[in-house]
Each structure stands twice: as C-alpha cells, then as structure tokens.
Amino acid sequence: MSKILVIEDEAAIRRVLLKILSEENKDYKIEEAGDGAEGLEKIKSEDYDLVLCDIKMPKMDGIEVLEQAKKLKPDTSFVMISGHGDIETAVNAMRLGAFDFISKPPDLNRLLNTVRNALDNKTLVVENKRLRKKVSKNYQIIGESKEVTQIKEIIEKVAPTDARVLITGSNGTGKELVAHQLHEQSSRSKSPMIEVNCAAIPSELIESELFGHVKGAFTSAVKDRAGKFEAADKGTIFLDEIGDMSLAAQAKVLRALQENRISRVGSDKDIKVDVRVVAATNKNLKEEIEAGRFREDLYHRLAVILIQVPGLNDRRDDIPLLVDHFTKKIAEEQGAVAKVFNEDAVQVLKGLNWTGNIRELRNVIERLIILGGNEITAGDVELFSGKS
C-alpha cells in the first residue's frame, strides 16, 4: 500500500487532489496538510512513499519543505505543485531532488502518470539500495590482522580518488573483494563495476570483449556490439588476471588509459570513455615483463597504487573470524541453523596449510558443516577436511 501526503494550502485544490488519488487507487493511503510547516511535521513522524507539495504556501514554502525533508527522508519521492509563474522555481526544485512538478490547475492524466512514475521510482530506489547493501555485504573483507588492517586503510585512502590500482596475490586470497571495496567506497559507486576475467576469454576474442566491434568486423560479427569499457563508462572496470591478456589487447588498453578513448574492432571511430581501471593478477608482472609477455609501459600505467593481498598462511589469526563468517553465511544460504566450531576445531584449522587460501577454507567449512555433527570438533576437521 502506497502512502501519500498532499501538502497544499488551497483547500479546493487539496480536495481535488485527494478525490483524484482516492478514485485512482483504493489502496492509496492519503493524508493531507494545509501548510508547509504542518507537512514537514508529518514527514518527520511518518514515512511516505510520495509527497505532493505546493510551492507557494504560508509559514513555510515548498522549496524549504523539500530541502529539509530530503535531509530527513532522502528516499521519499516529491512532486511539486506549481502555479504558472513558478516554473523556474519548480525546475530548481528538481535540482534539489524533486521527482517532477505539475502545474495548477492539475491535468488529470498528467497528474496520475506523474504519481505512478514517482511511486515506481521510489520502489526502484529502495530496491537498488537493498541490492547495493546485499552486494556490499557479499564483498566484505573479513579480518583484523595487521596485513588486512593495512589493506583496509589503503582502500579508505585510495577509493575516493581515480588512481589506478594493481592488486596482486595468489589465487583465492580475495583480490576481487579489494576491487569491489575500491568501487563501493568511491564516488563512482552509483555507476556500474564491470568485471572481466582476462584468463577466461580466448585471446582472439579479448579485444572485442573489451572494446566492442562493428558489424562485419569478423565472421560472427552480425551487428554492432559495445564492449566492457563502454559498459563501464562513469564507473569502474575490473580487469582480473590481467597477466593473461594478449600483447595486442595490452596495447589497446594502454591507449585507453593514455587517451580515455577506445575504438571498436573494425572501426576507426574513437569513443570517449570515463572509466577507472582496477587490475589484478596472480602472476609476477615484473618477471612477465622480462620474459616479453607483458608491456612495461602498461605495468607502470596500472600500478599507480599497488595492493598485495596476503595468503591465508600469512594471516592465520584471521581464521577464527573467517570460520564464524562463513559458518553464518553458509547457514543463511542453506536456510539452516548455524553450527558451532569448538575451540579445538578452530585451532586445528589454524594449523593447516592453506595453499588454496580463503577459497579453500570456505570449501572446507562447508564440507564440515554438511558432514560433521551439530558441534564441529577437532576430530571432524581431521576426518573431513581432506587435508593431511
């Protein structure tokens, strides 16, 4: 049920608005206020999906109501009601966060369409926030060790900038978590983060994947197609396993970084892009440069900030926190009650050799939860961990 507040000092217009809205949808819960001050007090005490607010009112005008309400309830959709001489003010209101404005006297179809669109927009805003919180929760960096604390501090300093970051570390250490946190804590967080696994794309297709292609560029290019760089415009592109990228693709990435321009395969037309590049690799790129498999100039373009993610064997003190985190997460995914790992079990896990790092630890924990008893013991770890 959508909850709507009508703030209008002219009683006749207020009655018309209430009648139109109540006839449009019987499920609308509609409240009214006769001036801006009264309306703001209602907004402070109640959550509304939509506020229809007149601009010129005694005690407090609609612009002031909008500004104060957006500070209190930023997700509330506002539609401003303006007289014919208030259009400039109404446009200014939209800059301050109003969804739209309608003129007096209100046109029926215009009013109802605006109300529907504003309510739909509120639903989308709330859903996007929910999904963003879910994504952010999925990409937490768990740990309080010195190594992890240093990484969190670097992210906090670097994320608000547009500095390029190269993340290094073995497979399974959580390099993608660092990349996601860099994006989530940046000013680009409302724009997309596009992930590209360079190792998973055949070398002959990597250029098309990154930069797109035009129709006829190659046999299977039956239509124009945008690439990942275009999709990430105003956001972040995460080039995972960049050490596996072909030299030809490296040259095009270098140009994109130098000029903020790309060209689709088969086209000589430049496309301007505004993209922050975060890259990751499990390889020693300096050795790859020596072997002629990686461009040194690209390395220096990418490695403005270097973040080395330690292996799990180098941060064993974080294992109890990781065990607790994965236990709760797996229970949530399976719709079950979280099992308990006793102290002896955790100590055994801390002493094992984690060549597969955090990814391997998560798999072992899931196996123990499935095969072990209600309380996971040291015996369960020795029996089911698969590690000798």
TrEMBL record:
Q: Which residues carry this modification: 4-aspartylphosphate?
A: D54
Kindly list any coiled-coil regions of this protein. Answer: none
Superkingdom assignment: Bacteria
Q: Which UniProt keywords apply?
A: ATP-binding, Nucleotide-binding, Phosphoprotein, Transcription, Transcription regulation, Two-component regulatory system
Q: Which InterPro entries match?
A: AAA+_ATPase (IPR003593), AAA_lid_NorR (IPR058031), CheY-like_superfamily (IPR011006), P-loop_NTPase (IPR027417), Sig_transdc_resp-reg_receiver (IPR001789), Sigma_54_int (IPR002078), Sigma_54_int_dom_ATP-bd_2 (IPR025943)
Annotated Response regulatory domain residues: 3-119
Q: From its record, what is one biological process in GO terms? A: phosphorelay signal transduction system
Name the record gives this protein: Fis family transcriptional regulator
Which organism does this record belong to?
A: Neptunitalea chrysea
